[in-house]
Amino acid sequence: MQLTDEILEIYNSGDANSEELLLMKSNRGILKLAMDRMPDNYKLVLLMRDYEEMNYTEIAAIMQCPIGTVRSRISRARNIIKQYINIANKNEKMEMH
User: Fold this and answer.
1) How far is CA 5 from CA 17, 28, 94, in A?
2) For 24, 37, 46, 91, which has the most beta carbons within 10 A of its beta carbon?
């Protein structure tokens, strides 16, 4: 399902107001930007863990690296996303003033 289809589905269900829809779209944009700009090895382990719901052992076997490296890369990938979210939140607050 594409993002616009998902937003339309939520909108048509009446479960979200227009402000929530804009926030969802904004958050998805921030996430996409962060994922596009992070190193591939961080992106891959994060996708395997959070999207494919693989465990650390499975990811380590696929990536041919120790479990500690997998954990470290996932942590770093999540920190990159948090940084992008924090920057976006700061920019949003500055625009409000």
Assistant:
1) 16, 13, 31
2) 46
Per DSSP, the three-state class of 24 is helix
pLDDT band for position 30 (cuts 50, 70, 90): confident
Residues with Cβ within 8 Å of 66's Cβ and at least 6 positions away in sequence, in order, are 60
**pTM metric for this prediction:** 0.69
Mean pLDDT of 2-23: 52
Local structure of 82: helix, strand or coil: helix
d(C-alpha 27, C-alpha 88), whole Å: 9
